[in-house]
Amino acid sequence: MSTGVSTTAYYHSAYRLSAYKTWKAGDYFIGNIEAGFGAGALYAIRSFKDSTTEEEKKSDYVIGPSFFARWMFAAPFFITVDSVYGIIGPSNRYGDIFALNARDNVNFTIGFSL
């Protein structure tokens, strides 16, 4: 999965790959719930520039457990929440447990399956 944003002063791109063990978690309202747990990796790059400073570029990577939940509310349409939690990454390579929340990536998706 990839996500990103770009303006004249800022851009951010994130690329994520996850592998899951999936199962049917049950039924909810008019559709079923699928869930998955596994491992994921994320690479993100961002840049900022304004009229008074040079362009600043930074990049990050994280590796850690990954989770998703998908509600197939009107097949083939679905709503999904998926995430990767950064256990290994530049901000916490020395065991800084308080930096873990800055390394998480969570996406909310509304879509359809072909």
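The record above closes out task 2.4. Task 2.5 opens with a second protein, given below.
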Amino acid sequence: MGSNIFSELFKRFLPAYEDVYNLVVEIQGLLKQHPVISSANIVIATDGKSPDNWGHQIGENPDGPCSQYRHWATARFTKDSDPVEVGEILLEQLQDSFQRQECRLC
């Protein structure tokens, strides 16, 4: 598992692809068990300082666990979404946010 679209530079600052993928798979498993809810909006966020310093939440909550972080990404997915694609979408958004706001350091 893994994605080659993320440069080595960003791997030093953003969550690991495998961690994001595993989170999506876990939430998707919960969706598959639920008789009514068929989709979820996931938010992941990071401060961009370490691949281990990030959080996630389901739904949009301005006071949720992601509120402390500077870089956000969001994706809506269903029970049948491809978790590889969802993980890549989330990390692409984080990478874009990081590049726009932090690349004066790069």
